[in-house]
Give the backbone structure.
Amino acid sequence: MARRVWSSWGRWCSSIPLVLAVASAAYGVSLDEKGDIKLGVRAYTAARVATQNTDQQICYGTGASYKCGTQNAINPNMPEDNQSLRSLTFPVSAAGHLRQNRFYVEAELDHNLQRLLDEGWGPLTLLNELPFKFRKFKYHLTFRGEADGIYDYGPAEYRTAYQYFNPVLVPTFSGHSANIGEARQRLRKLSVHRERLFQAYLETQVEELFIRVGRQILSWGETDVFRLLDNINPLDSSFGGFLVPLDERRVPLDMLLLNYAIGDLGPFWEVFVEAYAAIDDAVGFEPGTPAGSPWALPNLGAPSATLVTFRQTPRRTIEDTRGGVRLNFAAPIPGIQEANFTIAHYYTYLDIPEVQTLVTTAFPLSNVTNGPLGPFMQPNGFQGGFLAIAEQSAPRVQITGASTNFYVPINIARALALSGQPTIRAELAYFAGEPRQSQSQLDPFLFAQGGCRGPYKPGIVSQVQPGSPYLPSGGQLCRGGRRYGDSWNFVLGMDTNQFIRWLNPNQSFFITMQFFYKHLNGAVDRALIPGRRVVPVYEGEVLPVPRYNISNPLVTTPAQPVLIQQPTDQFLNTLVLFTSYLSGQVNPSLTLAYDWSGAFGGDNSATPNGGSLLVQPQLTLSRDPFRFSFSYSLLYARHLKGASGISLLRDRDNVLFQLEYVL
């Protein structure tokens, strides 16, 4: 995700090596006399090759004439006309095509200044005059560079714009074409390469108070692969979704972190309080995965002639600051000796945005971005004449929760025939003020027709003053409105080392498993919306991602979105197994994830007929400093569903070849 390369803290921290280098030249001080400077480098090149075709479903006609496939076009000379349903992953890509050629380098520099501080070197002497003593003083810099070669030498659907000019895949609307040039320019700007000063912070300790200030990553909680309490930093999924390791997707924030060690307190020990505050505009959906990326969400990967998206991020102000506090302690527990506990409360911005749809009160007979003379070029660069606007924003969410971890006593482990002591991990959290969407809230064909009174529910009329980017001449807009909700979230995990002698007589298997549960409080019930349509349309909680785009009697172009259902109760299991052979030179692993959403049906659930499955076997060969990995990612789901999001990449099965260098 492209971000500012230099933040204010980044510029400040990055000046330290220059100052010290100049000083060393003048006074002859060795900066690394006792190993004060540590440099680490990790670099890899990875290629993902598709093992299945991407989804493509284009249908024509209705009733008895309803047929799918471009060969069934009503007018063979103009197969883009009279489409009744369209669902596809854009660009369309075949099995065997390269989906990713990722280049990655990360260099970390740690410089411990404690020796120079103790010796009173240069300007650091002034710190020794303060009434308190610094027990730790160092800075950390991380550079990260990323690139993807498929846009320069990959298959034609990513290297060129030829599919963008195919009106079957990117249809026009009312004589208005999608802005292909802008879409291609944005894709190349965000996805070809990016170089960043990724982290830059200074940390110190005064007595029992630890302080870290600068651009950094902070992780709370006990989960891996998927998150629960660990929602402080945004995630960047533009280079491969959750197929890229979680640590590579976290986006750092400009943050002040304080940690005060209390020690023993009554029956508790190892007690500390940690608090943070972050002033930053980074969110997971800005800039998001650009149109044309091989990892774009279903039906959102192509530039649109009917819909334009505006994104609003938090401001870098005190008012929009995210922050929180947690209390950590260890306590005696009867039967299991002791356990670690964390109680946390914080404010953050989640990765899924709040979405609001805006149209004119004359919808669908008037385009929302038209001026008095028809379509025009807006000051921000997009072409006017769209039927609707999607406004994305990030409401601040409160998360309150607790976590624990403890070892199962050895006598219980032996009674269960386990080789080691399992670690039990658990989290419980309440999310307050999450953005929520329903079909009738986002679909203007349900809330906006008839002067914003809608055939299913009424919309909200608002007056727009002249100068608005939506209606420069002013006027009235119709919107579906905003809605928020709360949810309960829970995870239970277990980690253990277990010998399976017939598979590996010399090394144990590390096994980690997790069970996630989420319940949406006050969810909108799933119910069939009356009306004759190409496919049934249901009310209910949804993701702001189309499952299909269908035609409407008032608009023959597939412009009405049938959105992906979001289950009220969400269940997810994960399992990871790892072992090693030949003294750690051969390392096989297996990752499994099964999302039960939709497996049982029900009034509030996504479409039944099974859940979503991820299977990812991997083999890594290590000979320091090199590692070669081969893995296969199988993603299966009969229908697109919400919840974990596994099904959103169901047509992106691939094999990965990765060569890594670690210093």
